[in-house]
Amino acid sequence: MATSIYPQYPPDLTGEQKSYLLTNLIDWSIAHGLTVKPPPSFVSANQDPLGVLATPAPVTLFPSLFPQRCFDEALAIQESYNELYSAIARDEDWLKSIVEELLDIDDFVSQLWNIHLTVKKEGYAQNLALGMFRSDYMVHVDSTATKPEPEIKQVEFNTIASSFGGLSAQVTAMHRHLVAIDAYPPEISALLKTTESLGIKQSRSNTSLAAGLGAAHRAYGTSKASLPLCVIFLVQDLERNAFDQRHLEYSLLHDQGTRSFRLPFDRILTDTKLTSDRTLLYIPPHSPSTSHEVTTIYFRAGYSPSDYTTPDAWAARLHLERSAAIKCPSILTHLAGSKKVQQVLATPSSPHLSRFLTSPATRARILNTFAPIYPLDTSAAGLEARRLATDSKTAARYVLKPQREGGGNNIYRAAIPKFLGETSEERWPAYILMEMIEPPPLTNAILRNGEVQRGGVIGELGVYGVCLWRQGGGEGDKGEVLENWEAGYLLRTKGDTSEEGGVAAGFGAVDSACLVDV
Amino acid sequence: MATSIYPQYPPDLTGEQKSYLLTNLIDWSIAHGLTVKPPPSFVSANQDPLGVLATPAPVTLFPSLFPQRCFDEALAIQESYNELYSAIARDEDWLKSIVEELLDIDDFVSQLWNIHLTVKKEGYAQNLALGMFRSDYMVHVDSTATKPEPEIKQVEFNTIASSFGGLSAQVTAMHRHLVAIDAYPPEISALLKTTESLGIKQSRSNTSLAAGLGAAHRAYGTSKASLPLCVIFLVQDLERNAFDQRHLEYSLLHDQGTRSFRLPFDRILTDTKLTSDRTLLYIPPHSPSTSHEVTTIYFRAGYSPSDYTTPDAWAARLHLERSAAIKCPSILTHLAGSKKVQQVLATPSSPHLSRFLTSPATRARILNTFAPIYPLDTSAAGLEARRLATDSKTAARYVLKPQREGGGNNIYRAAIPKFLGETSEERWPAYILMEMIEPPPLTNAILRNGEVQRGGVIGELGVYGVCLWRQGGGEGDKGEVLENWEAGYLLRTKGDTSEEGGVAAGFGAVDSACLVDV
Prior knowledge:
Two copies of one chain form a homodimer. The first copy, chain A, is α+β, with helices and mostly antiparallel strands. The first copy, chain A, has two domains: about 15-370 and about 435-515, no CATH class; about 370-435, Glutathione synthase lid domain (Dna Ligase, domain 1), CATH 3.30.1490. Helix content of chain A is about 35%, strand content about 25%. Chain A has helices at about 15-30, 70-75, 80-90, 90-100, 105-120, 165-180, 185-190, 205-220, 240-255, 270, 310-320, 330-335, 340-345, 355, 360-370, 380-390, 390-395, 415-420, and strands spanning about 35, 55, 60, 65, 130-140, 150-160, 200, 230-235, 260-265, 270-275, 280, 290-300, 325-330, 375, 400, 410, 430-435, 445-450, 450-470, 480-495, 510, 515. In chain A, the strands form five sheets. In chain A, strands 3, 5, 6, 18, 19, 20 and 21 form a seven-stranded antiparallel sheet that branches. In chain A, strands 8, 9, 10, 11, 12 and 13 form a six-stranded mixed sheet that branches. In chain A, helix 11 links the parallel strand 12 (about 290-300) and strand 13. Chain A is globular. The two termini of chain A are about 20 Å apart. At the A-B interface, helix 1, strand 2 and helix 9 of A face helix 1, strand 2 and helix 9 of B. Chains A, B: Its cofactor is Mg(2+). Chains A, B: It catalyses: gamma-L-glutamyl-L-cysteine + glycine + ATP = glutathione + ADP + phosphate + H(+).
């Protein structure tokens, strides 16, 4: 049973109030590119072949309430999380032990690992790696505690293609604008107005993430091929969330002075080539005579199996990994983000955290953010998990998640025993069992594709982190972290009847955190 | 015969070049609110009842070439034009003599004049007036000259609702972005890159016009009714060009710290009231308990007869004019912008200019921008005009324009004699006859509603001006100009087969000037 902690919120609006709020929200969003390309169900490709129509990104009408100390803690520990995942990506032996358990059951992880082995054999051409992470949390209130207090629990840690960093700065600016023009009723505007520590928090994710790309670009050094340098945004075709990426691109150009190009995943082998020393060259299709040398590849594609439907796709990934460009993320960092890693770190009484973080205080803070996660293998913890998951009574407090990246296909609560019953037991280790987080009840309204829906919602706080490191050469050289900063936040809010995330997929909305002292 | 003066431009693009240019143009435009609401022919109200879809404003793919000295001259004389039209608006006797000629033939002018007389009788409650002008020019090359040189000729002078000041700063920034990312072929990018005096000129119209509203707001002084102060944007319902206005609103809030509200023209009498001392109060429908005192009314509606289809509409205009709010424009300034005024100033050997401008040098520069304009009345100049206009041979060098504001319904060249033949002669003085301006041939491509059309185009340079003055009390007190500045520019470009302007009406595109030394 979810425990209520927030004041009554948001208020009911009169028709005139709603109309004023909505008109200003829509126009501000479009005027500032807080937008997505409309889904085919709203605008068909037939109607708009050039793709010139846009619509506000799904957004909440109100900034969602969020406990101040939870927010502060999530941002405060981001640098430690950056350090942790950088250390994991630099610990090949440890990663190998984790990945090996998945090789037979997760073809995607297996393919990624094979690419690592292939490049390792040849020798890596680049010793720097860039992480642009996002650690996602929900507020959890333990209803069985004597004095229930809100705390953050990690939902997942993203090491590749963390999205919405371009839009989240816009959505907080949008909600702050609505406060500035008194679009909210007086009885709540005091709550929303920013004081030093409370009120709507502005996210700086856009410029801060662009600064991460800029730092990697500069760390690459001068051109080996005497060509102009560039960053590559590796993207999916027909990306509806393109403006999120564009805002990073524009900040990278204007604030960092760094050129970038968008490269669709299926054009890698056509539009890039490697020199004999594996310098990566980008040959712009619109201007083949002005090749650029690629310093940094920012993956906004290639993170899920659905991007690898042809043999060429894997050849393309290998081609990039062999190159001297800095990868964001490197293939080991990509693997570090697998749910299996999250699971072994969060398995009760796991010894792993102390391998990567020397400070006991830091380890304790990180541990506090873990919801218990169990493997579904045949270890002691795994057998306990199987017992919990196959009994519909105990399963009701859990969610079953595939180890792979990319969201989707989670199995919830009472549906778990039936699902496992229909799944061959040897495939069970491809899943983890996670204790459900119990967020306090909250109401909001969401504008999506021209429709407003109001109801119970669940918010997910994502904290961005930028980390640039030297990978090290093994045998005592563990590399070193060169840059490490917290890079703003995102609040994503979804209806509490849906149990999926991901705004662009149509299930949620971008939101701002209005911090309250609860 | 139009005389060619420009280098070959723009270049032909390969398919890949066009695709790169267009994708970047579309995404940049949407990400920065260089947008309009799509017309019903593109997106029906049925499909999008809340109005959440937007599309790039009609824009040119290339910045249009423009002679540098013409551009510099147009901007340099804007302050003199501000001075001129402020002086006209402050010279009631002279305006009266002009308007009286129109009273019987132009019902709209007649109604405006009656409002002035009504308010004058009661006594004006506000002695300050704000002008946000736009002087529109075309480049003219006299093909009969021995050494043809480009010069600017004024098309019209707008004293009310001058549009696109919000978007023009965006379109120049967009074209400059396209240069920065090498979206144009190398052979022309040198031409487009900004040097000190050549290349694409950034317009500052957005912030500069907002600064005009901010100056009026501050000049109004403190609240008489002890209420928060605000500016009113008086707008049309279902405004497709809303983002143009929104950008001014946002700059006014952020750069000037001034609140504003959008008031639809048909809500004036519902949402505002006058106190006993004629202070204008705005009662926001979404928050009736928080009335604001209106310092300044910025007319983006009410400029054409089509806004006055009910008796209430005229009562509403009177209501505003009676108020103590600063009007942008005042009713006399609105009248000063009638085509009749432009015509009498530009009638060959007119004595009027010296009444308003003391400096002979300034008068000469202003005079140079006039294309000869004739009345169609029974004066000597009018009789000469009738001779020119009724003969299809001589009419071929002229355009016939209605005296009223708002564009549209111009009659061109050979069509003039037939039109006059079908029009009762007593209505002829409602029109002016203007020598056609002969712009040098130019090619461009325009993106509009998801379609690209390439072909011959005509560009129209609009220069914005801000002028704040004290109206004076007559009898020797001629008032005084308090603020006067040039406020950026707009280039509007239309296909040369169409002979109408006005992008939002679907006939043109917003553009940037790429200055060339021709």
